[in-house]
Amino acid sequence: MDVPGWLNDQVLRMEWLSDLVTAGVQAVGLDPASQIGGSVQFFFYDVIKILILLSVLIFTISYVQSFFPPERTRQILRGRSGSGASTLAALLGAITPFCSCSSIPLFIGFTAAGLPLGVTFAFLISSPLVDLASVILLASIFTWPIALAYVGVGLLVAILGGTLIGRLGMEGQVAGFVRNVPVSDRDQALTRPERLAYARGQVTGIVRKVWPYVLIGVGIGAAIHNWVPASTIGALLGQDKWWAVPVATLVGIPIYADIFGTLPIAEALVGKGVGLGTVLAFMMAVTALSLPSLIMLRRVVGLPLLATFVGVVTGGILTIGFTFNAITHLFN
C-alpha cells in the first residue's frame, strides 16, 4: 500500500468527501456527469474541502505564528540590510497568514521602527503571496511539485523585489507621518492557553473574511469547469497564445481576493488546458497586486515608489508565467 499516496488522496484531496458529495448529488436526482450535476458536485465538494483545510491549517499556522508577533519580527529584522535581510523578511512573511491589505499596517510598523525599505517591501510582497497554508491547499488541488514551485517562485519575487527596491534609494518616497507612528517593541511571551485562544481567534477572523471569496471563486470555477468549452478557453488563454500571461496578470489585478478564493478558478483553468504559468500569473496578480491594497499603499508612499513596486512585481510575475509555461511538461 502506498501510504504517502493514500494520505495525500484521503487527507489533502479528501476523496472520501468527493465520494460523499457525489452520493448526495445522486440522492437528489442529479447526474454528476451532467453540467448541472457536475457544477453542484464541484461547488459543494470544493467549498467544504477548502473551508475544512483552511480552518485546520490556519489554526496550526497561527499557533506557530504566535511565537513571531510584529514586535519580535521587527527585532529579528532590525539592523539587517541587503539581499540576506530581504530573504529573511520574505521567509517571515511566509508564516504570517495575512491578505495584502492586512499587510499594510505591518509595513507601516516596520517602516516606523526604522527597518530598511527593501526589507519592508520583501515582507509586503511575501506575506499575501506565499504562506504555509497555500502549500497544503495547492497540493490538495494540484500536486506537491506544483505547490512547492509556487511557493518557491513567490519567495523569489519577494526577495528580488525587496532587494531591488532597497537598492534604488527611495526612502524619501515614504510619507512623513509613517516614520512618526508610535511603535511598541514589547515582546510579551504568551502562555499556551493564550496561544490557543489566539489561534482560534485567527481561524474565526480569517474564515469570516475569506468565505465570500471562497464561494465566489468556487462558483466561477464550477462555471468554467462545467459550462465553458475547452476550445473557448484555449482560444483565449491557451499555452500557444503569447498574450495569455499578460492578460491573466491584468485580469487578476482588479480582483480583491486571496489564494483561497483563486484556487478553485485555477483548478478549473488548468483542467481546461490553460498553461500552468498563466494560472500562476493570475494567482500572483490577485494576491500581490490587488487594487484595494495598491490604493491603501498609495496613502503611505509616493507615486514613483508605488509605480516601482508595481513594475518590479509585475515584471517578476510575467517572467515566472512565461517560464513555467515553457517548462510545464516537467510537472506532468
TrEMBL record:
Pfam families: ArsP_1 (PF03773). The keyword Transmembrane helix applies. PANTHER family: PERMEASE RV2963-RELATED. InterPro entries: DUF318, UPF0718_permease. It is found in: Cell membrane. It is a multi-pass membrane protein. Belongs to the UPF0718 family. It comes from the Bacteria. Keywords: Cell membrane, Membrane, Transmembrane, Transmembrane helix. The lineage of its organism: Bacteria, Pseudomonadati, Pseudomonadota, Alphaproteobacteria, Rhodobacterales. The chain crosses the membrane at residues 42-64, 132-160, 210-230, 242-261, 273-297, 303-327. GO terms for cellular component: plasma membrane. This is Permease.
